[in-house]
Amino acid sequence: MNFTQLALRVEGGLAHLTLTDPVRGNPFDGGFCAEISEAATVLSEDRSVRAILIDAEGPAFSYGGDIKTFVGDLDELPRNIKRWTTSLHSAVARLQRMDAPIVAAVHGLCAGGAAGFVAGADIVVTSREAKFVAAYAGIGFSCDAGSSIMFARRMGIARARRFLILNQTLTAEEALEIGLVDEVVSTDEVAGVANRIARELASGPTRAFGEIRRLLSSVEDQPLETQLELEAQALARSAATADAREGLLAFAQRRSANFTGN
Known about the structure:
This protein is α/β, with parallel strands linked by helices. It has two domains: 6-203, 2-enoyl-CoA Hydratase, Chain A, domain 1, CATH 3.90.226.10; 206-253, Lyase 2-enoyl-coa Hydratase, Chain  A, domain 2 (Orthogonal Bundle). It has eleven helices and nine strands. Helix 1 packs parallel to helix 3 (77-97) and helix 5 (147-155) packs across helix 6 (157-165). The longest helix is centred in the N-terminal third of the chain and has 21 residues, at 77-97. The radius of gyration is 19 Å and the shape is globular. The two termini are 29 Å apart. The relative contact order is 0.12. Keywords: Isomerase, Membrane, Peroxisome, Transmembrane, Transmembrane helix.
């Protein structure tokens, strides 16, 4: 697929995924959903990818859904939403199941599905001027893009409910306080800080990162004994990796570990 609303490149284990439709506010429309689904498929099959950095061109990260597209054919909209979310949600699921951790660099406005998508990142770095807008209820919509899951995981169900139902707008500092983002920096520092974190993760123990990501995704819906067994199985798999052996030897030899992602 030739991407028009995204740019994807992989270098040195770091996949860089950029939203590239700033004139329209990087909308989550049918075209974007198809492209992000393809990008997630490509990334999930690339064993060289050890971390993913997501950012966006233009003054806003994304305005979320494309209202012009919505009102263009209101009668067909329910069916279109099912078509678009089939692609979008497959992308969300594939990215969440990968070993590679995700870093998001957010600036400007981040609304609706874009905010939910960003909330699924492992580390979110945002500018002080950024704003996170629930948006959905303001146009009579419920949420998609994994928003119900990701918001609840990051800020708790009660706070996520308030954010969505009251159609709130959060400043960067408010988002930091409730756990929606992880770091707030100046606008000119966002790209550098996010890139540094992503590159650090890309040189880490990728398989262990994947096990941790999947354990945290199951923690809220598994009984204690089941989750403990999942931890044991994941740790055993991690212990069998080359990176675990390297980490142990490096610690014993008092040197820095050289992880290869294997």
